[in-house]
Design brief:
Layout: E1 23-27, H1 31-42, E2 46-50, H2 56-59, E3 68-70, E4 84-87, H3 92-104, E5 108-111, E6 124-128, E7 131-135, H4 141-157, H5 163-166, E8 175-180, H6 191-198, E9 202-205, E10 222-225, H7 237-249, E11 253-258, H8 268-277, E12 282-285, H9 290-297, E13 311-315, H10 329-334, E14 338-342, H11 348-357, E15 365-370, E16 378-383, H12 387-393, E17 400-404
Parallel strand pairs: 1-2, 1-4, 2-3, 4-5, 8-11, 8-12, 9-10, 9-11, 13-14
Antiparallel strand pairs: 6-7, 14-17, 15-16, 15-17
Length: about 425
């Protein structure tokens, strides 16, 4: 429980300290000091830690010069030249001495063990791009943390509208963000990816992207369907590139929302090159690739100690022997580890035959995971020899990921929580 603070003494004047290149002294080297140092380093302060011992993480910051460690107990005068101080030892007497020195020197000091005796309170803070959210909880840090987290969650998913950040001044060049949306479940997109979508003026989305995120966008956001259906309708890559560049040059914030990771068979680099050639600023937000995530969601690790030391991810959109294929199937068949095949439902029989032909045991375990991360996810287990037959009898359709190797036998099916 937080120590109660009288309403009169609990009134604070919220202010953002600009501590870059300014000396800050933290007395104490434990977990509390560790947390405070992390925020101070993010503010680019020159941090000195005074403590006989520090956590391993803090010690790791000493050699590269990220912080200075005075390896002894606190002594009067340690705050000389400081703009800000933190008293974070486990000894109230030491913390009191630090706070007293700070008060005499007119240095604001956060005393970790006694909020009522502190001249400054550290708010619960969080960052959303260049926006900093700081919350004081009236003396209750847990209350402040809860409100901060709620605001950040709303900013991330768009339920708290940051309309000013989305506004683009007339005549100013726009930008493009390539966002990897993960395997399909909107909860598996990265925080930065959700931020980019929430701030977009235009979203160019694939059918494998987490499309439910689009429902929360304001009506003035333009959503463009750039799906590429297997053996079916698709928007030409050149047209997608032109859309990204045209909308960005019109001053829009454009998000290219893809399934998985944009650089894992996502043609993301082609889009980056188009933007760079047109002078459009472009950012890449990596995504959770289906090649690893979908097997994991089915309880299948792509590596396992003592069983496999390598895994390879292969595009199966072209069958072995196709003149445009760049895959050396004979080399892949000789590997002892895990093979993960993406976009390989139609070509699976031919790929399985090639792996067997080039030396892989026909009895090698295989798992096919369909609709990975979605409520309809299912896993079908077989062998390389049995794969062609099971595809037909189980009515396997894209999107599906299939995995070859002994790791398939490690765990039973796992149902997503």
């Amino acid at each position: 429980m937080a120590s109660p603070v009288h309403p009169v003494t609990g009134v604070v004047y919220p202010v953002g300290l600009r501590l870059r290149d300014r000396r800050v002294v933290v007395v104490g080297g434990g977990q509390v000091a560790h947390r405070r140092v992390a925020g101070l380093l993010e503010a680019q302060a020159r941090v000195t830690v005074v403590s006989p011992e520090v956590t391993a993480a803090l010690e790791a910051l000493v050699a590269p010069g990220t912080l200075t460690w005075v390896q002894r107990a606190y002594q009067p005068g340690d705050l000389d030249g400081a703009w800000y101080a933190v008293a974070a030892t486990d000894d109230p007497a030491v913390n009191g001495a630090v706070a007293a020195e700070a008060e005499a020197a007119r240095i604001f000091c956060a005393r970790a063990d006694d909020r009522a005796a502190s001249s400054v309170w550290t708010p619960a803070t969080g960052r959303h791009g260049d926006l900093v959210v700081g919350v004081h909880g009236g003396g209750d840090p847990q209350r402040a943390i809860a409100v901060r987290d709620a605001v950040l969650a709303g900013l991330t998913d768009g339920t708290v509208a940051d309309r000013t950040s989305r506004a683009v001044a007339a005549g100013r060049a726009g930008s493009v963000v390539l966002v990897g949306g993960g395997p399909g479940d909107p909860a598996l997109i990265t925080v930065r990816g959700r931020q980019a979508v929430a701030q977009a003026d235009v979203v160019v989305a694939d059918h494998l992207a987490p499309l439910s995120l689009l429902a929360s966008l304001p009506p003035d956001v333009e959503v463009i369907d750039a799906s590429k259906l297997p053996r079916g309708r698709s928007m030409a890559q050149e047209q997608i590139n032109e859309l990204l560049v045209d909308r960005a040059l019109a001053g829009k914030r454009v998000v290219r929302l893809k399934g998985g990771d944009p650089f894992v068979f996502g043609r993301g680099m082609e889009e980056v090159e188009a933007c760079v050639a047109a002078g459009v600023p472009v950012e890449v937000v990596p995504g959770v690739t289906s090649a690893i995530a979908v097997p994991a969601l089915a309880g299948i690790p792509v590596t396992h100690r003592g069983l496999t030391h390598e895994f390879v991810v292969v595009s199966g959109h072209l069958p072995p022997g196709h003149p445009s294929s760049l895959v050396d199937w004979s080399a892949i068949a000789r590997l002892r580890g895990t093979v993960v095949v993406l976009m390989g439902v139609d070509t699976a029989p031919a790929i399985a035959a090639a792996l067997v032909e080039h030396g892989r045991d026909p009895a090698t375990p295989v798992a096919v995971v369909s609709d990975g991360s979605m409520p309809t996810q299912r896993t079908v287990r077989t062998t390389l020899a049995g794969l062609p037959g099971i595809l037909a009898t189980a009515d396997i359709r894209p999107p599906s990921v299939w995995v070859v190797g002994p790791v398939v036998s490690l765990a039973p099916d796992v149902t997503p929580a």
